[in-house]
Amino acid sequence: MTMNALSSVSSRLLLLALAGAGAAAVPAVRADTHVDVGVSIGVPFRHGYAVVSVGPDRYYYHRGVFYRPGRHGYVVVRAPRGAIVRELPPFHSRVYVGSTVYYRYGDIFYQSCPDGYVVVDSPLMVAAQPSTVVVTQAPTPPPAAPAPAPVAPANDDYQTVWVGDVQYQFKDGQFFKKTADGLVWAEAPVGAVTKTLPQDAKSVWYQDIEYFECDDVYFRKTPEGYKVVLAPWKK
Question: pTM (2 decimals)?
């Protein structure tokens, strides 16, 4: 082999080595991005869900609720301490404990951090000092819309909804089924009637009929409540 050939081979090996070293030097990115999931269960989530990693554990997050795969689908689980999300759920409130600000959604507490908001232990579980004052402040409401959607109840209770002989639990625009593992997320069932709409539901008009949309689920007002329907322009 000539000297020129040896030089060419050596250059290629050096470039490959540098490329491998560069790839190894790229830091791992904590997953908190919007993805479609469901390959392991066969019940796909809608778009808009986020994957959240806490150490070696992986969770799925949407609208203040954390999930993990179970035998029957994606099971609602307790918010893991240290989980970081980019946005707070729509029904959160602000809590002051002394000079420290927390954000509360149900029994979950968050604090602001550089990447978003991190799940922390409840400050209310700590023995209160005589001088400690806890004040809860509701978030600033959005500007009034021409046709505002009805506001969901301020409490954290689930609504029970029946479609035929199937029972669902409804909260913040999401439907769940009760299983032996706990609450499992379910696709919004067409025909389900809820008492209220999610607070961030948007008014949509089509052929002089008003619909309400939240996470690509459409409702129409009826005398009984708000009925889940197929968007007529998508049929």
Answer: 0.58
